[in-house]
Amino acid sequence: MSRFSINFLKDNNVYFPEEIIEGTVSWQLNIDPKKVYLRLFWFTSGKGTEDMEVVDEISFDNPGISDSRPFKFTLPNEPYSFSGKLVSLTWALEILSKPGKEAEQKEIVVSPYGHEVNLTKSGG
Amino acid sequence: MKARNNPFSSRNVEALTFRHAYIRFHEIMHRLKNMSYRASIIGPKGSGKTTLIEQIGKELAGEGFHIKHLCLTIEKSKLSRSFLRNFYADLSPNDAILLDGAEQMPWLQWIFFNLKTKKAGALIITSHIPGLLPELLHTSTSPDLLHGLVFELLGKDAMISRSYLENLFFSHNGNIRLVLRDLYDTWSERAV
Hints:
The complex is a heterodimer. Chain A is mainly β.
């Protein structure tokens, strides 16, 4: 079974809009990968149809079967992480290799308030 | 409850796999192959037709088919001529067409669609009405099916009564999609 891990330089996973996310990704795969990708994206979840946008992507060249690489993304200024009763917006990083079906995802919070915007109290 | 934590969120519901009382998924695929990959899934609203066609699409993609997914609804019941012209021109035996909501397509357009897509490797449609293509499966629902799906979403220790689910099932005329949306609303009002 393949293993991926995403580690952030920062202790918590809460970021301000336009902040730089830095860290290291590492992997131990069963077969030699042609490419390893790290994606920064957000997605919605809730009652309706899901929405998703890949904001940035890093493609690691000449990846080894067991390897580790640093990464750096600059966050856009929106959208903020939020959650209501009908919909939540979640930011995440995902690492995956090709060929291969496995992936690892790590969620982060992007907000100017130091926590996700909570809309549940106002009926969100 | 926050939307992301709601067990009945569309993400969780869409992750449920198709199930049927008498036939397993691999048997459906076997039947589809014997039908030369041109078949229809018939059933009422909220009975799993879309779930099944999407699952078949993933399986066919795994077999090397290039999936072309079309969806018709009451709001968008017709495909434009220019779209179809390009669509037909690009078709090859490696393509598998999935047409969800085929009963919405006007008859004349359907006749041409059926003819022009014969060069594709597969055409699978969902429809509320029979007769468009040979029937692969007739989907149906039951309180037992709903019970199984809800317990898969909530976990074995779920505190929800069978009679409550049965009432919901019958109040939505067996439309499981509507029942799950109703349950989403109920769970969204919960504190945790």
